[in-house]
């Protein structure tokens, strides 16, 4: 009995000694794990009224949020591109408990001037457009994207005016695409006609805009405009080729039907993931470098190519 008791005492002493040796190694990791596991609050504030336009991006955001300990709120506007409403949402979220914000700016220049007044020192990540004062921006090279889209349209062009639809005059990213298209087409002697039109009116107004401009081709520069132009083209039974931007489910369907001839697309899933990951790591004091998102020009007959399927039909990995 005494021998068994002595063995138990010796085993207890060995366990205590082992713990004494291990604790200095384990405690820093435990502390680090607690820091990483502390949830961060993230508010995503878009310039659109339709959250379905961001469905692929949201999938990526939710994946990154789950991996990086982020609790996310996803907010849209009641009026498309309403900068005053977006500013009010930013102020409200900053006055609440959010730690960081992902923003698709409605009015890039105006928001740049007021950003820090609205959000204080909270981490800001911009999507679609570069935003002065934001820690990171997640977007493709918009000028290169516009140039590539214009080159694609010129491959099909045989004379006549190209209609450029300006649906987001305050969005720097969208305007950069449009301006790159204009310069590229003009440099090759292609006449263009630019029309400014509200997203909410585009579907019904497209037929008249085409008639006024005498357009032989139509170009849109944001996902919402590409969807509305496709709907307007079908309802008015227009034959002019339509070139757009985006990788939404509806855009993929328009491509498959031939209503949209080609789009410039990037992985919205990746964009959403990187935006949330970058916000979380930056807020936690880590350095995070962001490169421009790669993009592709996708024609209707190419949507089921393996690489294009990843853009248009993303899955959670």
Give a quick precis of the structure.
It contains 11 helices and 11 strands.
Topology:
Elements: H1 2-37, E1 40-45, H2 55-68, E2 70-75, H3 83-95, E3 100-103, H4 108-119, E4 123-127, E5 136-138, H5 142-156, E6 161-166, H6 172-187, E7 192-196, H7 199-213, E8 215-219, H8 223-235, E9 242-245, H9 249-257, E10 262-266, H10 268-283, E11 295-299, H11 306-312
Helix pairs in contact: 2-10, 3-4, 5-6, 7-8
Model description:
- The chain is an alpha/beta fold and 317 residues long.
- It has two domains: 37-140 and 268-293, 3-Layer(aba) Sandwich (Rossmann fold), CATH 3.40.50; 142-265, Response regulator (Rossmann fold), CATH 3.40.50.
- Helices cover 52% and strands 17% of the residues.
- Helix 3 (83-95) runs parallel beside helix 4 (108-119).
- Residues 1-35 have low confidence and may be disordered.
């Amino acid at each position: 009995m005494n021998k068994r008791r002595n063995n138990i005492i010796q085993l207890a002493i060995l366990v205590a000694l082992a713990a004494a040796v291990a604790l200095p190694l384990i405690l820093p990791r435990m502390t680090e794990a607690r820091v990483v596991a502390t949830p961060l609050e993230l508010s995503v504030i878009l310039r659109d009224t339709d959250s379905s336009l961001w469905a692929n991006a949201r999938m990526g955001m939710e994946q990154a949020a789950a991996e990086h300990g982020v609790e996310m709120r996803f907010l849209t506007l009641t009026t498309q591109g309403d900068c005053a409403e977006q500013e009010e949402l930013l102020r409200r979220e900053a006055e609440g408990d959010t730690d960081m914000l992902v923003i698709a700016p409605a009015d890039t220049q105006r928001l740049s001037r007021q950003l820090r007044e609205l959000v204080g020192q909270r981490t800001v990540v911009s999507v679609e457009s570069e935003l002065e004062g934001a820690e990171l921006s997640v977007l493709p090279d918009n000028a290169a994207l516009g140039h590539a889209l214009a080159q694609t349209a010129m491959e099909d062009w045989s004379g006549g005016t190209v209609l450029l639809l300006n649906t987001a005059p305050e969005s720097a990213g969208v305007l950069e695409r449009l301006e790159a298209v204009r310069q590229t087409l003009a440099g090759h002697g292609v006449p263009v006609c630019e029309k400014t039109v509200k997203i909410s009116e585009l579907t019904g107004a497209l037929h008249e805009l085409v008639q006024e401009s005498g357009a032989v081709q139509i170009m849109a520069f944001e996902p919402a405009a590409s969807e509305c132009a496709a709907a307007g083209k079908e309802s008015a039974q227009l034959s002019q080729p339509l070139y757009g931007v985006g990788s939404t489910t509806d855009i993929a369907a328009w491509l498959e039907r031939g209503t949209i001839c080609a789009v410039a697309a990037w992985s919205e899933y990746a964009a959403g993931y990187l935006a949330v990951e970058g916000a979380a790591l930056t807020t936690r004091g880590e350095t995070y470098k962001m490169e421009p998102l790669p993009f592709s020009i996708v024609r209707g007959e190419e949507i089921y190519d393996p690489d294009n399927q990843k853009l248009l039909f993303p899955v959670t990995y």
